[in-house]
Amino acid sequence: MTIRKVAAGEDIPYDLLLLADPSRELINTYINVGEVYVMELENNIIAAYVLVRNDTTVEIKNIAVRVDYQGQGIGKLLLNDAVQRATAMGCKSICIGTGNSSIAQLYLYQRQGFEITGIRKDFFTTNYKDPIYENDILCKHMIMLERKLGEI
Ligand code: ACO
């Protein structure tokens, strides 16, 4: 298994990125300013994440594992890889945002040392055309989490 940056001109793994973010339009806005990383297994892309740097912090804008590989520890590996890259970039912190209804994601990120720092109120109901439901909860707000680098 290797994790590498997608090269300029290479295909973007939209099928994966759309698992984490149903808006192709929003995906395009952040991949234009960020870097896409992919995990490959025997020449197949099975997971991806996107980093966008803003001064001394970097945000994981999208993180996704192919459905048939979920629940096997790959999400944790991707988060650790992002932390290592952000540290190597000289960033002081790394952040990630997820929906108020994304219970498993909130569990995973906090288990990996991210702490809740704020809420972008009504982010999903404002920016997405169709309502998003997870765990029978309407996804309205984005919960922001941050991990200070060099701490864990
Ligand atoms: N329900 C309950 N617990 C879960 C679930 C789930 N659906 N998924 C993962 N977990 C738990 C695991 O049990 C594990 O817990 P443990 O550390 O106690 O053993 C922990 O979370 C880590 O699990 P991984 O196997 O590393 O996670 P996975 O490889 O499935 O990746 C991810 C997690 C990226 C969320 C993946 O499930 C996925 O692609 N989901 C669809 C897309 C998505 O929701 N992306 C995140 C949106 S937010 C954003 O992109 C910024």
Automatic annotation (TrEMBL):
Gene Ontology MF annotations: N-acetyltransferase activity
Annotated PROSITE patterns: GNAT
Keyword rRNA-binding included in the entry's annotation: no
Superkingdom of origin organism: Bacteria
Keywords assigned by UniProt, alphabetized: Transferase
N-acetyltransferase domain ranges (all copies): 1-133
InterPro entries: Acyl_CoA_acyltransferase, GNAT_dom, NAT_camello-type
Matching Pfam families: Acetyltransf_7
Protein name stated in the entry: Aminoglycoside 6'-N-acetyltransferase I
Taxonomic placement: Bacteria, Pseudomonadati, Bacteroidota, Chitinophagia, Chitinophagales
